[in-house]
Amino acid sequence: MALRFYNTMTRQKEDFKPIEDKKVGIYVCGITAYDVCHIGHARSAVVFDIITRYLRYKGYNVIYVKNFTDVDDKIIKKANAEGVSISEISERYIKEHNEDMDSLGVARPAMAPRATENIKGIIRHITNLQARGLAYVKEGDVYFSVEKFKGYGKLSRRNLEDMLAGSRVAVDEKKENPFDFALWKASKEGEPWWNSPWGRGRPGWHIECSVMSQRFLGDTFDIHGGGEDLIFPHHENEIAQSEGVTGKTFANYWIHNAFVRVDNEKMSKSLGNIFTIKELLKRYHPEVLRFFMIQSHYRTSVDFSSESLAESKVGMERFYTTLKNIKDADVSDVDSSGISEKDLSEKDEDVFGHVEALPGRFVEAMDDDFNTAMAIGYIFDTVRLINGYMADSKTSMTAEKLFVLDTAQRYIKKTGKILGLFLEDPDEYFRKDRDREAEKRGLNVEEIERLISERIQVRAAKDWQRADEIRETLAERGVVLKDTPTTTTWKIG
């Protein structure tokens, strides 16, 4: 089956045919660097991270470009409020963004250009638009004339005449049409500026993405992506100002991810329902957040709530519990290195056949519009099968059974890696989860470890009274101990 995915431009799934064989150029609109990132930013980042991972898994050489908007009204407003430069604001939040993405396991793009690094290209592009009669100047501002670009509205399926008839766009006396948009803005007092043929000013929002994408990927590239809120006006305007200069198709495929909703409402600062990535990472393992965001298809909105995240946490625990059980079953006195499929019994072979089918089923799901929900379902099927198989095998771990389990572990991790999941050692995953839960309850992990260490020492000295006192002290704090012949482990009860 060929890779097919939904193209927003045509409103249908299409076979993917890159411009160059086995090479893919992707441009995704990044953040405006004026505030910390929230769960909505995380979903878009994770979606395109997985798309990029999967294309590379399929053998494509992917050139992934994602920009930073580092000059904008919001950045200027914040800089003026704090009495600092716009570069100080943008640097701060680009750094915060990168830390958040690293924590989520989102790979850095090949290129991460900034608007302020491309001013010369922006001015050149606007000059070309003006020469083609698609831009006009009013009092130092330069606007794109949407009526002069044939096909304006083709991505969003909006008819310009209908938009004008029902327009609620504020009237700007400088504009010839209410939907004309700024390519260049004349500088005002307290704003940054660059010299241009139209006087001192700065670029508009839309123009930067046209210039940066074409600089790194060419006049026409394979995939343009972003959140569905960018379809209009941002991506529509990108098409107009790009194709208006080149006369060529801007991007062959458009991919847009749906929103994250909070308790069935759209996130907004006015509702106070925005959750930052940093805040959530204090409460949940990064893979729990990734898992939450990809259990639904990327074109389907996901509803964020404490209940949905709790369910995602339980789901990840099921996966990691199975991986831990397989790891623990890998006993030293059983050697499966010389085993192959021909050595398996009928029952073992049946389970092995289902396990071996996982990568193919995974690819089948991902080839169908990057269907992570279906792909995860196939991994779950394998986990359920292995759990039942291990329950039957506890009393007699043979080399053949270990061969089946090791194969299952390898395929679960292989498919999970494409999704950015199951990257931790199972013991380390549960340790981090336990420590995070302890900190959420206000417990000091170092103090717990110190008391457990003391208890091990007093038990060795047969001071049972003190050992019991420590156990009771920890139990009062919700810490449950488990003694084995060689060590003591703990968890939050």
**What global shape is seen?**
globular
Any guess at the CATH architecture of the largest domain?
A: 3-Layer(aba) Sandwich
Indicate the mean pLDDT: 93
Helix content: 40-55%
Residue fraction in strands: 5-15%
The counted number of beta strands is: 15
How would you name the oligomeric state of the polypeptide chains in this document? single chain
Largest sheet report: 4 strands, parallel
CATH topology of the largest domain: Rossmann fold
Please count the helical segments: 17
CATH superfamily of the largest domain: HUPs
- Tally of domains: 3
The N- and C-terminal alpha carbons lie at a distance of 48 Å
Spatially, the strands of the biggest sheet line up as 4-3-9-10
Poorly predicted segments:
none
Protein model, in words:
- The protein is globular.
- The protein has helices at 39-57, 73-82, 86-103, 119-131, 160-165, 205-217, 231-246, 277-281, 286-294, 306-329, 346-356, 358-367, 372-393, 399-419, 426-440, 445-460, 464-476, and strands at residues 4-7, 12-15, 23-28, 61-66, 135-138, 141-144, 181-186, 201-203, 221-227, 251-257, 260-262, 265-266, 302-304, 479-483, 488-492.
- Helix 2 (73-82) packs across helix 3 and helix 11 runs parallel beside helix 14.
- The chain contains 17 helices and 15 strands.
- Strand 1 (4-7) and strand 2 form a beta hairpin.
- The strands form five sheets. The chain has a four-stranded parallel β-sheet with strand order 4-3-9-10, sandwiched between helices. A four-stranded antiparallel β-sheet has the order 5-6-7-8.
- The chain has 493 residues and is α/β, with parallel strands linked by helices.
- 49% of the residues lie in helices and 14% in strands.
- It folds into three domains: 4-280, Rossmann fold, CATH 3.40.50.620; 306-424, Anticodon-binding domain of a subclass of class I aminoacyl-tRNA synthetases (Four Helix Bundle (Hemerythrin (Met), subunit A)), CATH 1.20.120.640; 441-492, no CATH class.
